[in-house]
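Escalated from tier 1: zinc ion holo job.
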Amino acid sequence: MLKEINHIPEELLVARAEDLLDLLQTPTLFHIEGTNPQPLFICTLLHGNETTGFYAVQKLLNKYKDKTLPRSISLFVGNIAAAKEGQRRLDSQDDYNRIWPGSHHNDSAEKDMMQIITSIMEKKKPFASIDIHNNTGKNPHYGCINILNPHGLVLASKFSDIAVYFTDPKGVQSSAFSDFCPSVVLECGQAKDQSGADHAFSFLETILQLDELSSENSNSVTLYHTIARVIIPKAVALGDNSNEHRADIILNEQLEDENFHRIQPGTEFASFNSNKEKLIIVNSESSEDITNEYIERKDNKLLFKKPVTLSMFTTNERAIRQDCVCYFMEELHIG
Ligand SMILES: [Zn+2]
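Tier 2 regenerated the structure:
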C-alpha cells in the first residue's frame, strides 16, 4: 500500500490536503535530492485533519521548485484517506501515529507499512526526523522528544522555547526514529491557524541549512515531562452545556485556555451527575491508574488534588474518544 517516488509531481505543489487521495491514491514516500545527500526526514498527515505539516512542506517545495535543496529530503505523506474526510483517522483505520516499531497494536497492513518506511529510512541514516502535527485544543507551539539526548533537544529548541518529553503512547513515529536519528514532533497549534504552517516552514528552512545539530547553537527551553494521560471510559456519557441532563460528566471548558499553565489544587476538572465508579481515568506513563493521586470527588465535582501543568486539553468529543482529554505534565530540570 506504500508508494515510493523520486520526484515531486507538479500538482502536489498546489494541492489541498483533501485532494491528496485522488492525486496519490496511497500513502507516499518521496525522496528528493539535495546538495548534501544525507536526508532530512519529514513526516506529514499521520493524522488526516492535521494539515499544517503538509502546507509547510508544500511552501518549502515551492520555494525550491527551480533550485537545488541544500540537503536531500525524504517526505512521507501519510493518512490521505482520512485527510479527504477531514478526520484524524477513519473508523476502519489504525491511528497512523500509534503503529510504528515499538507499537503494542495488533498487526495490520498499515503497521507493516510503517515498519517498511522505518527500515528504508534507517538505511539512509537521516540527519534528523521531523513529524508535524496540530492540536484540537488551544496550545502554544512546542516540540516533543522521546529520548533525552543533546541533539534532539537542540532540534526541539530551534522550534520553540517549550519542549515536552514523553514515552507514552507507544508506537509513535518520532520514538521509532529516535533509535537512529535526532527526532522531534512539532505541535503547531490548531490546523486552521496559518501561523502554524508559517512557523513550521521557517523551522524546516533553518534545519535544512544546518550542517550539524551542535549544542553550541542551542536555544534555551523549558522542558516538561508527560506524567499522565487522561481518558474517559467508553461507557461514560460526555456532555456539554446543551445536553447536561443526559451527561454523566461535563468537562470544565475553561481549562481549554490553561494548556501549559500550572493548575492549582482545588481547580475543577469536571462536574458530574452519575454513580459510575470511574468517570475519568488518569493513566501514568507506565499505564497504571493513578486517578486518585491527582483527582478527588467533592460534591458533584472532580477537583485537582495536586498542582499540575496541562497540555492538549480539549472538550471536543471526537478528539477525546479517538485520543484523550489531556496530558498532565511536570517541569523537568536537566543538568
Ligand atoms: Zn497528531
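The pocket of zinc ion is lined by residues 47, 50, 97, 133 (CB under 6 Å).
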